[in-house]
Specification:
The chain is an alpha+beta fold and about 350 residues long. It contains eight helices and 21 strands. Bound molecules: adenosine-5'-triphosphate and magnesium ion.
């Protein structure tokens, strides 16, 4: 079992507050992702959980034990946490197998058992055929996977991963996401995962926490973060979005030049409407808003368009096969299948 509970945790470096009052519980076996732009405090959060940093104020508990508090501080080696750092470090003088086996060796695990577990882990991270290679004979992505194998091999109950897939190519990154998720489920690990890649967060997490300048913007399921973002920052950070300014009345939102959409919410006056490009449909006959097809890009799987509505360019993403059906310069009508109002 491994839950992590934060009570009023803050972190300052000098006079700069990096993490503002953080209160949350990461439940046992949960996959939590800390998401946010560079410098927002994600690594700092992991370092506090691992015990490489002390919170300035507040308390961190792992299960029922206080690990950081005003008069308690348990050092990292006594916290039984697996961690893969953003700048993954593998032992340069050990081959891949020995790197992965290291945590088991220092715990005195028997040789046969080490062999079995290391082989299982190396297989999971697609490194079986590299087991005798030295780190300087590996690519950055391969070294990153050695670090991942080493963190997983001793089946920690709590695993901290700081952008562990950042050096992998797109295909491998995608397959490793599912591998990590599968391993987390299989071994029943609580994972705290750091990324600034929203697709990664979506694919793996039970709970996503979006940070901005050390302040939590939203804690929610991936679907709610995407479909019901708490504010414009979250909406914009997580996925693509168009923002249109309008005025909300009872029953509708009006845009410039009198175009309007139906609205059943309770906001009134100046509002910002957020609509994701894939939630807009387009045709040449009728719709709630009228514009001009300005540009259309064929990207294989999708048709990525810009529609000019009263001088505002709206991005519309349709399926690739629709490319060329509406020519550039043509009048086009759009409908919003789903939108949000801020
Ligand atoms: N030891 C330190 N002393 C002073 N400031 C620090 C220290 N470590 C981090 N910072 C600052 O704290 C802020 C948060 O850093 P952190 O590494 O947690 O960001 P991050 O969200 O992990 O960013 P990235 O996505 O770029 O890795 C940054 O402004 C950083 O410059
Ligand atoms: Mg970082």
């Amino acid at each position: 079992m491994s839950s992590v509970t934060f009570t009023n945790v803050t972190k300052n470096y000098g006079s700069v507050q990096i993490i503002h009052e953080f209160n949350c519980k990461f439940n046992d076996k949960e996959f939590i992702t800390l998401l946010g732009p560079s410098g927002c405090g994600k690594t700092t959060m992991l370092r506090m959980i691992a015990g490489f940093e002390r919170p300035t104020t507040g308390k961190i508990m792992i299960d029922d034990a206080v690990v950081s508090g005003s008069d308690v501080f348990i050092p990292p080696n006594e916290r039984n946490i697996g961690m893969v750092f953003q700048s993954y470090a593998v032992w340069p003088h050990m081959n891949v197998f020995d790197n992965a086996a290291y945590p088991l060796k220092i715990h005195g695990v028997k040789r046969d058992e080490i062999r079995r577990r290391v082989n299982e882990i190396l297989d999971a991270v697609h490194l079986s055929e590299y087991s005798t290679r030295m780190p300087n004979e590996l690519s950055g992505g391969q070294q990153q996977r050695v670090a991942l194998a080493r963190a997983l091999v001793s089946s920690p109950k709590l695993l901290l991963l700081d952008e562990p897939l950042s050096n992998l190519d797109a295909k491998l990154r995608e397959s490793m996401r599912f591998e990590i998720k599968d391993m987390q489920k299989k071994f029943g690990i609580t994972v705290v995962y750091v990324t600034h890649d929203q697709t990664e967060a979506m694919a793996m997490s039970d709970k996503v926490i979006v940070f901005r300048n050390g302040i939590v913007q939203q804690t929610d399921t991936p679907m709610n973060i995407y479909r019901r973002p708490a504010n414009e920052f979250v909406a914009d950070f997580v996925g693509r979005i168009n923002f249109l300014h309008g005025t909300a009345y009872d029953g509708r939102i009006e845009f410039a030049e009198g175009q309007s959409i139906k609205y059943s919410g309770d906001k009134r006056g100046d509002v910002t409407v957020g609509v994701r490009p894939e939630n807009i449909s387009m045709n040449e006959h009728d719709g709630v808003l009228k514009g001009i097809m300005s540009k259309s890009y064929y990207l294989g799987d999708v048709n990525d368009c810009r529609v000019n509505i009263n001088g505002t360019l709206i991005r519309v993403i349709e399926s690739g096969h629709t490319y060329g059906k509406i020519s550039e310069g043509a009048e086009v009508y759009i409908n919003f299948n789903e939108f949000m109002v801020f």
